[in-house]
Write a structure and sequence with these properties.
elongated; alpha/beta; disordered N terminus
Length: about 210
């Protein structure tokens, strides 16, 4: 009787523990103009492309994504969402006709992608099976790079360490890094010339 009571209490306690929610909350509109929640991808990694039908670099990126889809279609879900408000369903259907896309395509319905500070297209984001951010690529990215990173992630999702750790797809972060590196380099050069000048003066005095 005591064992049955303990088991019953245990079931009641654990049944009230909240199940981890899918991190990528929100929804999008598919080509059938249906509202689809991102949660549908729960349980499998998601590779998401933010694009625009008017983006020339997105056209260049498309063949690379076709290769990615063919390589990982059994292990990674793919989704291409336009972030251009002018891209209606008709435009997407026309785009899909000209550039056949075997994976899901649609429109960013709400502000879900805004928290990733997407300002340039194409921007590609990799999420783990629970919708957590894993990595981000801004602008045209070669298949070889994407292939290597996705394979690295699949080999060790927990230990995977991307180069973009700030969970942002804002290219300004990259630009700021280049600016900082430039300032440091300029500082080193300036110090070098100052030291060289001091040495020359000492040599002249002696």
């Amino acid at each position: 009787m005591k064992k049955l009571l303990i088991i019953t209490i245990g079931l009641l306690v654990f049944s009230n523990i909240p199940v981890g929610a899918y991190s990528l909350e929100g929804s999008y509109t598919n080509l059938e103009d249906q509202n689809v929640k991102f949660e549908r991808f729960k349980g499998i990694p998601l590779f998401l492309e933010a694009f625009s039908t008017e983006c020339s670099h997105c056209l260049d990126q498309h063949p690379e994504l076709v290769r990615i889809y063919n390589e990982f279609k059994n292990t990674v879900s793919m989704l291409s969402l336009t972030v251009d408000a002018d891209d209606d369903i008709a435009k997407l259907l026309e785009y899909n006709s000209s550039y056949p896309t075997s994976w899901e395509m649609g429109r960013n319905l709400d502000s879900t992608l805004e928290r990733f500070n997407i300002k340039y297209t194409p921007t590609m984001i990799l999420f783990d099976s629970e919708g957590n951010y894993a990595n981000c690529w801004i602008g045209f990215t070669e298949y070889s790079i994407l292939n290597f990173e996705i394979n690295s992630f699949l080999d060790d999702p927990v230990g995977y360490n991307s180069g973009n750790k700030d969970k942002s797809c804002n290219i300004e972060n990259t630009e700021n890094n280049y600016l900082n590196y430039g300032l440091i380099f300029s500082g080193v050069i300036l110090i070098y010339f100052i030291i060289s000048d001091i040495r020359k003066r000492r040599t002249i005095k002696t």
